[in-house]
Design goal:
alpha+beta; Arc Repressor Mutant, subunit A; 2 domains; two-stranded antiparallel ribbon; two-stranded antiparallel sheet; disordered C terminus
C-alpha cells in the first residue's frame, strides 16, 4: 500500500467510512478522478482488509465506551449506602474510613467530607461523611438506555400547560432550571477538592 493510499484509508475513516470521493480528494487525488480512484482502491484486497480492520477497532471503542457508562450507572443504582457505615464500639453508626470502603460503593460516592475533631481526652480523631450520587437518576438513565419505559418514559409525558397559567414567570423560570438540572445527564467523579478549613471535599456528578 502506498503512502497516498494509506492516507486515503484514514481520510475515509475520518468521514465515518461514508464518502469515498471526499476521502480520495482529501488524500490528494483529483476531483475528476476521485470517484473512480475510491471505487478502485476499496476493491483492492489490501486496502479492503485495512479498512475493515479500522472499522472493527472503531466499533470496539464505541462498545467499550457504552459499556463503561452503563456499568457506571449500574454501580450507582445498586450501591448500598450502608456500605459507607460501620458500627462503632459505642454502638453508634459512623462513616467508614475511605481506605475501608468496599470497592462496589466507590463509583456511587459523589463527595467526601473529612473533619478532624478532638475527643474529651484531647486526642484527635477524624469523622467521615459521604454524599452519594442520585440513585433514582441513575435508574432513570439505565431505564432509558434499556428502553424499559417505552411510551411511559417520564421525560416524554405531555405537560398540562393550563396548570401553570397563574404561576409567576420568575417561578416558572426557576422551576424550569431545576428540572433541567435534574434531568441533565452528568459525568463520573472528575474533580478532587483540597483541604479547606478542616474539610476535604471530593466532588463529582453523574
Amino acid at each position: 500500500m502506498s503512502p497516498k493510499q494509506l492516507l486515503f484509508c484514514h481520510c475515509f475513516a475520518k468521514n465515518d467510512f461514508m464518502n469515498g470521493k471526499a476521502a480520495a480528494i482529501a488524500a490528494g487525488y483529483s476531483e475528476r478522478s476521485a470517484v473512480n480512484q475510491a471505487s478502485m482502491m476499496l476493491r483492492m484486497p489490501e486496502i479492503k482488509a485495512y479498512v475493515e480492520d479500522m472499522k472493527k477497532q472503531r466499533n470496539q471503542l464505541v462498545t467499550a465506551d457504552a459499556t463503561m457508562v452503563v456499568n457506571g450507572y449500574t454501580a450507582i443504582a445498586t450501591a448500598n449506602p450502608l456500605d459507607c457505615l460501620v458500627l462503632g464500639s459505642d454502638g453508634l453508626w459512623k462513616g467508614r474510613s475511605p481506605d475501608q470502603l468496599p470497592k462496589a460503593v466507590l463509583p456511587a460516592i459523589a463527595r467526601i467530607h473529612i473533619r478532624t475533631l478532638k475527643a474529651k481526652d484531647g486526642k484527635e480523631y477524624q469523622e467521615f461523611k459521604y454524599e452519594l450520587h442520585d440513585k433514582m437518576a441513575a435508574l432513570l438513565q439505565l431505564g432509558r438506555h434499556l428502553d424499559v419505559f417505552g411510551e411511559d418514559d417520564p421525560s416524554k409525558r405531555p405537560v398540562n400547560i393550563a396548570m401553570f397559567a397563574n404561576v409567576p414567570s420568575e417561578q416558572l423560570e426557576a422551576l424550569n432550571a431545576q428540572f433541567k438540572a435534574l434531568m441533565a445527564p452528568r459525568g463520573p467523579v472528575s474533580e478532587v477538592g483540597a483541604l479547606i478549613e478542616g474539610e476535604l471535599s471530593v466532588a463529582g456528578e453523574i
